[in-house]
Amino acid sequence: MFFVVLKANDNGEGGTFALYSLICRYAKVNLLPNRQLADEHISSFKLKLPTPELERALNIKETLERKSFVKTLLLLLVLMGTSMIIGDGILTPAISVMSAVSGLRGQIPGFGTNALVIVSIVILVGLFSIQRFGTSKVGFTFAPALALWFFSLGTIGIYNLIKHDITVLRALNPAYIYFFFKKNTGKAWSALGGCVLCITGAEAMFADLGHFSVPSIQIAFTFVVFPCLLLAYMGQAAYLMRYPDSAERIFYDSIPDGFFWPVFVIATIAAVIASQAMISASFSCIKQAMALGCFPRLKIVHTSRKLMGQIYIPVINWFLMIMCVAVVAAFRSTTDIANAYGIAEVGVMIVSTTLVTLVMLLIWQTNLFLALCFPLVFGTLEIFYLSAVLTKIKEGGWLPLAFASIFLCVMYTWNYGSVLKYQSEVSEKISTDFLLELGSTLGTVRVPGIGLLYNELVQGIPSVFGQFLLDLPAIHTTIVFVCIKYVPIPVVPQEERFLFRRLGPKDYHIFRCVARYGYKDVRKEDHRAFEQLLVESLEKFLRREAQDLSLESNLEETEFDSISERSRDPGVLRGDRAGELRIPLMSEQRFEEAEISTSYEAVSALPSSVMSSDEDPSLEYELSALREAMDSGFTYLLGHGDVRAKKNSWFLKKLVINYFYAFLRKNCRGGAATMKVPHTNIMQVGMTYMV
């Protein structure tokens, strides 16, 4: 299972949301309807639609796209898995640190439960306090520390096997599983919950997959982690055969005399590293959820200039710290925390198995028998483990379910409200005919400058633009409707970032720009760098538009002269067709909502001999007008939207939208804070969206 799940990565990214984004690329299951055909042309999209021969894959794709309740069910499943991972971000530091510190109980006289709790809380507070510095500054110590840790586990295990009872190696025989259950029945079933703790951390490793390569994880797990853990557990079993009363603190009791303090120090460092990995995984999952519109916008700090995956989310960090401290102070024992930990682990595994099965059927197009064997074998085992850990609900198992429920409600409420708001914007967008009736002056005065109107629409004219025309005495000579959109891929190449389209006649100077980002992309550029990049891309768009029009005119003039020649040489026809595909403007004139990418490769695909800017005075005039507007400055036009449920809505919908979603919008980061734009360059108008 380990190797299969690692193979199901999204261009090297792991986690439940990475699997969800992978599925979103192959089937339109995202509830936010902002997908564009041009997104599939991004070089890292790598879309391979199911072939017509595989009817099963096509049927699955059609079912996912057609039935809204299936989309909602898939989203809820992903959100539940993500919520469980965030819950692990609370439980892992608590149980790891407490387990390491508990070794002092038998070593220092008078070191009781109160001392254990206090020392654990001090270490946890210190761990979360250094998160803002990032792991890159201390990350170089992780590899040698963990190598020393696993070497210690394996060596101590071999020592105990040889010294105490080498016959425990017979436990490798699967027949003893049957004998164990036959003899102990109910107690054996309950013991399965403890076995889950042997594989904890696998979900963090999958979520942190972007920091490593898949082969490196497979090699490390196969030849280092698994053998050392197996030797450690067998060594402890051999020790228990001679000293059965040491079960409560078997790890430290089985350490050879004279090696306690070195192993204690290494164990504490390993616990901190394991906690760090889980905290980083929580940050990564939340960032992915934010990018895909499933979590309120929060401040994200990038702690490394070289590694874009090194992030720090202050609000989440302090929330996790408070919850960790509360768990340690309330439970005061690793036993109850372990019961809670098991449910979270198995929950994430079941979600991952379900999503990987869907990937196998839809994307890999695996043989149906092999694809069904995966959930049948591993899913059955996970259900067995789940049934065992669910018996511990009253003994602490309720905790991860409570955490998961809270995060699930937050994420689904945000996604639900965002989808309704987007649908409201689509239904209320301004028609092009109304814009044409206003004329090139837009019914007001045009003043020099560039107005960047931020909205979420990828098509059409947003209704907030009409509000600006009503409230402002003048509007800028150049208007760009900017949409920041996240596409379901990890990274969008910089040269493929922007999509432009002209809205209205040339003398209106109105454009739409869709800035596309992947869920791992770093938006660290300041507003000046963004403005410069946007204007450069807009200039490329204008030049390409002029080249497209000139080429189209030349093609029309020579069309009838070349009919007979093309009929004799079908290869020429294919060349013309390919040329048309490289000229989106021609299809845009025939289809209202086509988009034009400003990538350099696409521009260079056109022959330079078609036309130069010197031969087109209108292009030169428009470029000079754009530069003049740029010199006059940029103004950010933002709509401060208030979302309210319609009066005839159900009570539950009013409660969710008017109170819960409104609370989240009020307390999350707004557009101005996200863009880091000076307040003097911002203009806002109020809008109310009835959903």
From TrEMBL:
It is found in: Cell membrane; Membrane. One of its GO terms (cellular component) is plasma membrane. Residues 3-435 form the K+ potassium transporter integral membrane domain. Keywords: Ion transport, Membrane, Potassium, Potassium transport, Transmembrane, Transmembrane helix, Transport. The chain crosses the membrane at residues 73-91, 111-130, 142-162, 188-207, 219-239, 259-286, 307-331, 337-361, 368-390, 396-414. One of its GO terms (molecular function) is potassium ion transmembrane transporter activity. Residues 448-689 form the K+ potassium transporter C-terminal domain. InterPro entries: K+_transporter, K_trans_C, K_trans_N. It is a multi-pass membrane protein. It comes from the Eukaryota. Belongs to the HAK/KUP transporter (TC 2.A.72.3) family. Potassium transporter. This is Potassium transporter. It comes from Actinidia rufa.
